Amino acid sequence: MANTIVIGLGNPLLADDGVGLQVAGLLRDCLPPGAGVRVVTAGSGGLGLLELMVGYQRALIIDAMLSGTRAPGSVARLAVASAGPARHLAGSHGGDLAALLRLGRSLDLALPERVELIGIEAAEVDRFAEELSRSVAAALPVALSLVRELLALERPSPWVTGQVDQP
Q: How far is CA 127 from CA 9, 64, 94, 150, in A?
């Protein structure tokens, strides 16, 4: 059984909002057999996200973000407490991720002790399109490499590390 879950979040019909889904799909395609990792996708955060994480020791969540401070296509590791720029991990519909985790733990849900976030700065999220913008599409290999590195599936690459903000 897998002890790690990777969750790609987003809407595939809203341009860059689907980047988390695409990174998850790329990861699924290149995972070696027996990696101990389950890869899933979801349309939003909230209580459904908690349900997906139950029973795993570790969760890695990938989402588009709108920080307003990073260039489109920037890849960042985000702390759970500062998940605000992530599209589906904060707000009135999905709830704040840190608060959701506290709620789940108060309900004695078997949630992962280790929850990590990867955000990819979006350029366009309000336009109906199935394609990513050029800058966000160019970030796919960077984000995938970071996820693989965090999962210990590859060694750190200097060109990736230089583009990643540490939490």
A: 17, 14, 21, 32
Pairing of strands 58-65, 4-9: parallel
Quick one: which of 14, 37, 4, 27 has its CA closest to 114? 4
Q: Measured at the alpha carbon of residue 106, what is the angle toward residues 151 and 56, in degrees to the nearest 5?
A: 25
Q: Single out the residue of 65, 64, 73, 79 nearest to residue 24, CA to CA.
A: 64
Query: Which residue in 8, 17, 12 sits closest to 39, CA to CA?
Result: 8
Structure-token pair, residue 137:
């599409």
Q: Could you count the other beta carbons within 10 Å of the beta carbon of residue 166?
A: 8
Paired tokens of 69: 């401070």
Q: What is the pLDDT of residue 84?
A: 59
Q: In order along the chain (167 residues), what is the average pLDDT of each group of 10 residues?
A: 91 92 96 92 86 95 89 90 60 66 93 93 89 95 95 62 41
